[in-house]
Amino acid sequence: MTALGIGGLSVTMPHKNAVAEFVTQIGVVDEVVRITNSANTVVLRPDNSLWATNTDGDGCCNALEQAMNSSIKGERVIVLGAGGTASAVAYAMVQRGASDVAVINRTPQRAQELVNRVAGSTRIVSSGEIANAISDARIIINTTPVGFGDEQGSQVSPIDVSLIKSSHVVLDAVYKPLITGLLLASQKAGAKVVDGLSMLVHQAALQQQHWIGQMGDTALMRECALVHLART
């Protein structure tokens, strides 16, 4: 990084776990990376050592709290997926006081590993408990790639959309298309929806703070991102 004049890196899937392990070996990582084994932000420090963190979780929480105009504290949350993003999101939810963080994943072993790492109010949801868990929750967060790259208006969803109610707040980390099958179904059910671009710009604003010491302007970042997405 020094030779290239790079002061920081933004890491995306599927490299978050590998980067976390790499920086753990040769540099310094913060608590979120140590617990989740997932890094999306690398900073080259003045002494040329590397430091890593993960802003996905706080970016997700900030996007949700802005949309809800209320705190995560006390909320019951569903996290779909058990990868690097899911781990960071679950960790942040626990740190912000969510009363229940239920993890749903097609591979139960990976979900259990996430719960073991993050602990706190996290728990694994078996296939037979999914309907009740979703019914009891207020917030549903999709961290899986289901829906990524689909056509706008696609009906592909990581869960049975008939389980979504108007009382739910649904965030899909997928931002292309902006309105995924999950969000489209959620809108039809009357739920509040938060698109993946909102989470993306909120986590990117936090990354900018780590790199240059100044929080990014999320409204401006979203506007620029929308222009770029319209061209692709």
3D structure, described in words:
By secondary structure, the chain is an alpha/beta fold. It has two domains: 8-54, Leucine Dehydrogenase, chain A, domain 1 (Rossmann fold, 3-Layer(aba) Sandwich), CATH 3.40.50; 57-197, Rossmann fold, CATH 3.40.50. Helix content is 43%, strand content 16%. The protein has nine helices and ten strands. It has helices at 16-26, 31-36, 56-68, 84-95, 108-118, 130-136, 181-188, 196-212, 218-231; strands at 8-10, 28-29, 41-44, 50-53, 76-80, 100-104, 122-124, 139-142, 169-172, 192-194. The strands form two sheets. A six-stranded parallel beta sheet has the order 7-6-5-8-9-10, with helices on both faces. A four-stranded mixed beta sheet has the order 1-3-4-2, sandwiched between helices. The longest helix is centred in the last third of the chain and has 17 residues, at 196-212. It is globular. The two termini are 29 Å apart. The relative contact order is 0.13.
Key terms for this structure?
Rossmann fold, 232 residues, 10 strands, alpha/beta, 4-stranded mixed β-sheet, 6-stranded parallel β-sheet
